Amino acid sequence: MARLNRTQIRRRRNKEAVVALSAFITSALAVFHLYFFITSTTQRSCPHLSPNPNFYQT
Fold this sequence. Notes:
Layout: H1 6-42
């Protein structure tokens, strides 16, 4: 197999860097999606009660 010249080595390294960066971004997004999914499903919402206007009068 022939040796790679400098241009081919640089292109290969750039491609490897892009693949590594995209893998990192994809995994970070997966973690954020998982976090938001867990927080949205486990939060307990308190019931929204309308204020009683006659509370202080009684």
